[in-house]
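Propose amino acids for all 110 sites.
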């Protein structure tokens, strides 16, 4: 599988599961992470902000991580493994089971 197909498939699956204006994919680069995609999905006021390296997305199964508190860029990353077919389900699970830092959830409930 190639990178372009995989990122388009992820975008398509996420926009069909979540509203299009709540899904954003940006290509980024920095010294620590190299070249990567930042994928942001907002659902019911909560956000999953994930990163996945370009190299990881070249295969059908890939490692990725999301911020435990997307309001704090220095919060812990939670590492996950998904494949192209299940990524939308995995992100839905994060929302449904509220797999975020307690500080983030408390901030949302104010």
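Proposal:
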């Amino acid at each position: 599988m190639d990178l372009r197909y995989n990122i388009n498939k992820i975008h398509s699956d996420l926009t069909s599961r979540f509203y299009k204006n709540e899904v954003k994919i940006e290509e980024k680069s920095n010294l620590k992470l190299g070249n990567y995609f930042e994928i942001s999905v907002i659902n019911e006021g909560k956000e999953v902000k994930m990163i996945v390296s370009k190299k990881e997305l070249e295969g059908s199964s890939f490692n990725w991580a999301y911020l435990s508190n997307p309001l704090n860029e220095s919060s812990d990353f939670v590492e996950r493994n998904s494949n192209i077919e299940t990524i939308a389900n995995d992100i839905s699970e994060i929302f449904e089971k509220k797999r975020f830092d307690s500080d983030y959830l408390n901030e949302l409930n104010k």
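The two ends are 44 Å apart (CA to CA). The chain has one domain: 3-108.
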